[in-house]
Design brief:
Largest sheet: 5 strands, antiparallel
CATH class of the domain at 436-508: Mainly Beta
Number of strands: 24
CATH architecture of the domain at 436-508: Sandwich
Helix content: 25-40%
Length: about 500
């Protein structure tokens, strides 16, 4: 391995002096990426050349995961998570939508969801099995994120008014019973609805395979899982917002009532006043099961927490003895007796980009942007250092909570080329938190930028949302140069500027 100068950036170690070593993503024989995809992706402008290089290399790996599906698949091409050849995952696919939205003509994120909707809710016979139908119910959240970014009301109308996939999934999840069979899946479901109080779940079904949750209550079946009910609340809130966007006021009101009921239930049952933390609770006596995991940040993404509750959750998040430090957002708190310091042992401390992304977006809902940005930069720095130091030079399924290396699963190194959801770091978090483009809304024709004047020249080119294509670059001194094919509002650090078609210069 070549020598390189070490440089500390926000607490993590980066190798900066030499260019990134070359990487050629493994091209699957069924790969069918649009050959012009590089013309579609946004082009970041940032003084850290290696982060920019990692951004592009991550897209290259993701391009290798755009697959031509077997004959009879509802959506082909589709995004493959790079795990099993004959199965697809709900929550992997949902999280891939959140970076694929930046280049939707080449990276079929939402289209891939049809490979899940149709076999689950239309009983369509398809050639790929759905691994764990009771995976986290994230469809409504990612569909809303996609709609906000693209403004695609036709898809929204099809989802909500015609096929009603999102409502069907919410209602099924709310009434699920353990042991139920789906023809499209090789497994019985593990999720079990316990009246109005919540759900029992398992490690695999929840996505947190070997998590020690439920440990002190006698196992998974004896606790109500805080993430399951919070994801239902998030779904209800997002469905309400999308119904409102379609002008369906009565439906929006109905889903808002559903959301408020779930919000009240979560705060009544799952909030532990003693520790100021959301926990799973025992079924028998509704007492906190104090195994502290990253899943407890789903209530914040669903915006069920008060300002005071969110403040307490952020204190735990930033505490280096729990979820903070140089390698933030481990899946299990460092203070837990089952925390695995060296590698994280998958969900016993491993750092996962999907839950990291969720947590960052959750605390942003409450205005904790500095904390969110610092976490994002540390996690991307870790991914970059692991890319540089570890062979093969790639993006990993999850990472160690104590060093610049991948995590392990059953003692083996986790999966490489995982773009897949791990692309959320070098792509989405880089755009949204390092560059600072917090919100991009085609529906509102608006870009919200948290510009950091001390970062030097930075910005983004070829950003496409809806029918708008724009370049936005800060010169590092006091001028923002904008080029656009249409007008929109650019909000820079809470100041609103009107962008016209053509070139616009903004003096800060």
């Amino acid at each position: 391995m070549m020598n390189a100068k070490l440089s500390a950036i926000t607490g993590s170690v980066l190798l900066l002096s030499a260019p990134l070593q070359g990487f050629s993503a493994t091209t699957h024989p069924d790969s069918c990426i649009n050959r012009d995809w590089k013309k579609e992706i946004p082009l970041p402008v940032h003084p850290n050349r290696e982060m920019v290089d990692l951004y592009h290399k991550t897209w290259e790996i993701a391009a290798g995961r755009v697959r031509k599906g077997p004959e009879g698949l509802p959506a082909s091409p589709y995004m493959d998570e790079n795990c099993y050849e004959d199965q697809i995952w709900i929550w992997d696919t949902c999280f891939m939508v959140l970076f694929a939205k930046y280049a939707p003509r080449s990276f079929p994120g939402v289209e891939s969801l049809d490979n899940l909707y149709k076999p689950v809710h239309e009983k369509a016979v398809t050639p790929l099995k759905v691994h764990l139908v009771d995976n986290p119910p994230l469809f409504a959240w990612v569909e809303k994120e996609y709609f906000d970014f693209t403004g695609d009301k036709n898809r929204l109308d099809d989802l909500l008014n015609k096929k009603q996939y999102l409502q069907k999934h919410f209602n099924w999840f709310a009434q699920a019973k353990s042991g139920e069979r789906f023809a499209c899946s090789p497994q019985n479901i593990h999720l079990n609805s316990i009246g109005d109080d919540g759900f029992t779940w398992t490690g695999g079904a929840s996505g947190m395979d070997n998590t020690p949750r439920g440990r002190d209550a006698g196992g998974y079946r004896n606790v109500l899982w805080v993430d399951a009910i919070s994801q239902q609340a998030l779904s209800a809130r997002c469905i309400a917002d999308m119904e409102q966007a379609l002008g369906n006021a009565d439906e929006a009101k109905k889903w808002s009532i559903e959301y408020e009921a779930l919000k009240n239930k979560i705060n009544h049952l799952y909030w532990d006043k003693k520790e100021g933390f959301y926990y799973d609770v025992t079924i028998s006596d509704k007492q906190p099961c104090r195994v502290k995991t990253i899943a407890s940040y789903w209530p914040l993404l669903a915006q069920v927490a008060s300002r005071e509750q969110a403040q307490s959750m952020v204190r735990h998040l930033m505490n280096p003895e729990e979820f903070g430090g140089s390698y933030p957002t481990p899946s299990l708190a460092r203070s837990d007796k089952d925390y695995h310091h060296q590698t994280g042992d998958y969900w016993r401390g491993g750092i996962w980009l999907p839950t990291t992304y969720m947590t960052i977006k959750a605390i942003e809902k409450y205005g904790y942007h500095e904390e969110a940005d610092a976490i994002a930069e540390k996690v991307i720095s870790q991914q970059l250092a692991a890319y540089r130091n570890i062979e093969p030079h790639t993006i990993w399924e999850c990472y160690s909570p104590s060093g610049n290396a991948p995590s392990t699963e059953h003692g083996r190194r986790v999966r490489p080329e995982f773009c897949g959801w791990s692309a959320l770091g070098p792509i989405s978090l880089f755009i949204e938190n390092v560059l600072g483009f917090k919100e991009v809304s085609a529906a509102r024709k608006e870009v919200r930028w948290r510009l950091k004047k001390n970062k030097g020249r930075h910005g983004i080119k070829n950003l496409r949302f809806g029918g708008i294509a724009t370049d936005i670059v800060f010169d590092g001194k006091g001028t923002v140069s904008v080029r656009s094919n249409a007008s929109y509002s650019l909000i820079i650090n809470d100041s609103n500027y009107s962008v016209k078609k053509g070139d616009t210069e903004i003096q800060l």
